[in-house]
Amino acid sequence: xxxxxxxxxxxxxxxxxxxxxxxxxxxxxxxxxxxxxxxxxxxxxxxxxxxxxxxxxxxxxxxxxxxxxxxxxxxxxxxxxxxxxxxxxxxxxxxxxxxxxxxxxxxxxxxxxxxxxxxxxxxxxxxxxxxxxxxxxxxxxxxxxxxxxxxxxxxxxxxxxxxxxxxxxxxxxxxxxxxxxxxxxxxxxxxxxxxxxxxxxxxxxxxxxxxxxxxxxxxxxxxxxxxxxxxxxxxxxxxxxxxxxxxxxxxxxxxxxxxxxxxxxxxxxxxxxxxxxxxxxxxxxxxxxxxxxxxxxxxxxxxxxxxxxxxxxxxxxxxxxxxxxxxxxxxxxxxxxxxxxxxxxxxxxxxxxxxxxxxxxxxxxxxxxxxxxxxxxxxxxxxxxxxxxxxxxx
Amino acid sequence: xxxxxxxxxxxxxxxxxxxxxxxxxxxxxxxxxxxxxxxxxxxxxxxxxxxxxxxxxxxxxxxxxxxxxxxxxxxxxxxxxxxxxxxxxxxxxxxxxxxxxxxxxxxxxxxxxxxxxxxxxxxxxxxxxxxxxxxxxxxxxxxxxxxxxxxxxxxxxxxxxxxxxxxxxxxxxxxxxxxxxxxxxxxxxxxxxxxxxxxxxxxxxxxxxxxxxxxxxxxxxxxxxxxxxxxxxxxxxxxxxxxxxxxxxxxxxxxxxxxxxxxxxxxxxxxxxxxxxxxxxxxxxxxxxxxxxxxxxxxxxxxxxxxxxxxxxxxxxxxxxxxxxxxxxxxxxxxxxxxxxxxxxxxxxxxxxxxxxxxxxxxxxxxxxxxxxxxxxxxx
Lengths: 394, 380
Prior knowledge:
By secondary structure, chain A is an all-alpha fold. Chain A contains 16 helices and no strands.
């Protein structure tokens, strides 16, 4: 059957104008909301900024992780849709920008920046070699630089292959993936510790990095899944069949379970040991209305996606996948909200200001996609694994 | 191949997974429904090519998995709330987070094991353990390096000649008929076959004796005995470390246990009766203490009310009643002495009941005696 098959050709499709406009509109509405938030209540806005920053990190850096995963595992199913992942990873150069407003409000965000409080606190004195402003900023710069570097190298090789059709770029990227994965593990973990865990500098959980990682992969896979299904429905990704969609659905399902496993592991150990220096973090999230957010998180992030994605048929049904991708992205935002906001407020806060960053990021993803699709082929035509990827069957 | 046995299927071999995938597509397209594909390893896309419906085993797995989680929760709930409530780590009896790992494991266990059993029973038609394709050249080929299709004779469209031609048209080689083995045609109950039962018995014997040997002997052979053969003293065992050869060391001469008070009246009942005075006052807490100790240590023989009428009566020389005039007229010291030193068949309780508790018991015995011999004034 391979002989009769025509090799896929480059696809230059543009997003419909109204989609692009909607993307820009969402982006600018988000920017206005964020700016208003900073004018009215800078402290709250900076906490919401942390949610927004972690959201961009999880989508963009998670997408680089998916790229690396494809190369290191020699996966073929994801090759026909790899460009979508690359376009989503195109957010990476903007990741540091998302943190810049918050960098001017570190004193509002982080208790460990209060020198007078640290001076009288033995725990914070002990953590001072790690939690200090120069090192924190240095890590932020270094992590951002590493992510941008790897993004740039991955996509450069992939795009060059479109014209040269040279197999050596695949080899380069396989090596690059082997180098990136440990870097990814370390940078993502410490980034999560810096921006998430250190909001409550007395608290510690060794699984926190893995917890954030599970959400990161989910966010990236959900974003890619949604875009792939939409483009497929619009006829722009003709090479995608139910078999490739099934693999995306299986990834979503697997990481929904992984997230629940990690989240519960973190809870179980702290609940069992019952040490006051660990339990207060969960107690905050079980008081003053936060308990409803906690329960909502279990339902949103695990129970519903688990049951909906459980049947085999569901994992390749485009309509259901599209719906669950958005669902999981919302759940991920609620997860970040649940991680960050209890430090800011005793009770859950929800109004227009909460939606600023999610709107901004959603608009950014659409705009980035529109921008990239105008410039590059939607199909990596030079990839030697493309043909096998198109013919992939489960 | 005897002509008398009915035809099971016509088989054909292919050289590559692509070829068999293509042939399977064509077979399904030609309208055959009862056919099967055999490959040495899973071939991607085969379900689709054969136009198979989604397997229903997933539904079974879901039901069994749900059964697993429900039975785990039910079992733990029953144990933790009803049968054996224990406080563990200060948690509530029904500490659900602790149950999650167990429930998860049982879910996975039941879902996987029972799905496999279901597959064996429904799809492999257990207890049928024979298949016409067994021991054929076709099966030999497809289990090493060939790929095969078998179109079954019970297919509604089956016609030997046209099937042969069809298989040739999709480039199949070694097109052969496979007949039912006459011996296997009887798909009746084979579980009670003597040979099968004999094999089963042998397997049971081997497994049971193997397990027994492993658990009782093999585990204590070198090098697994390293934990048993330690250089340490064992209670009640001799040791070469000491000159007297005893592992257990007696305390240094003259050692006295903490709180030990020497008893000066061993074997001197009369003196004890005269000289000893109850050091405790007959207060309510003391009498309660005496009652508790009496019910634990004394009542098994003397009865709950000191009448010497316990359920052990008759099994050995009857214990005397404590309400007799003789005992009532004893001094506290005499009663204390009997508890401490023993009397006739009654052993000494000095090592089981502390000195103060023995005195408290004496008070309680006085309570029992008074209750049995109440005066008019007591009743008023």
